[in-house]
């Protein structure tokens, strides 16, 4: 039987890995990633973003980001989300996809 402390550790480690994958992916999406101000909207949650009977399972991470654009100005808070599976971002939402 797993103890509550072990379950909490496993969940916390999973959240940490999910947020790390999200941050690495986000760095590739932004013009000036070092300017990003990120706010996470809760913990990653299990999700299925598949369509028409096809399944796309992972953990959904919702967040807002405010970063500089090509002109050097901040864009304002933009809502985004990523679906993470096996430590990799497999789908991005809110970036024109």
Descriptive report:
The protein has 97 residues and is of the alpha+beta class. 27% of the residues lie in helices and 33% in strands. It contains 1 helix and 5 strands. It has one helix at residues 4-29; strands at 37-40, 45-48, 57-66, 78-85, 88-93. Strands 1, 2, 3, 4 and 5 form a 5-stranded antiparallel beta sheet that branches. A hairpin with an 8-residue loop joins strand 2 (45-48) and strand 3. The termini are far apart.
Main sheet makeup: 5 strands, antiparallel
What's the pLDDT, averaged over the residues? 80
Strand content: 25-35%
H and E string: HEEEEE
Class from secondary-structure proportions: alpha+beta
Uncertain residue ranges: 1-12
What form results from the Cα inertia axes? elongated
Count of domains? 1
Helix content: 25-40%
Distance between the termini: 43 Å
* Number of strand elements: 5
- Rg (CA only): 15 Å
Count of helical segments? 1
Descriptive keywords:
elongated, 97 residues, single chain, 5-stranded antiparallel beta sheet
Helix and strand layout, with pairings?
Layout: H1 4-29, E1 37-40, E2 45-48, E3 57-66, E4 78-85, E5 88-93
Antiparallel strand pairs: 1-3, 2-3, 3-4, 4-5
Brief characterization of the structure:
The chain is α+β, with helices and mostly antiparallel strands and 97 residues long. It has one domain (4-93).
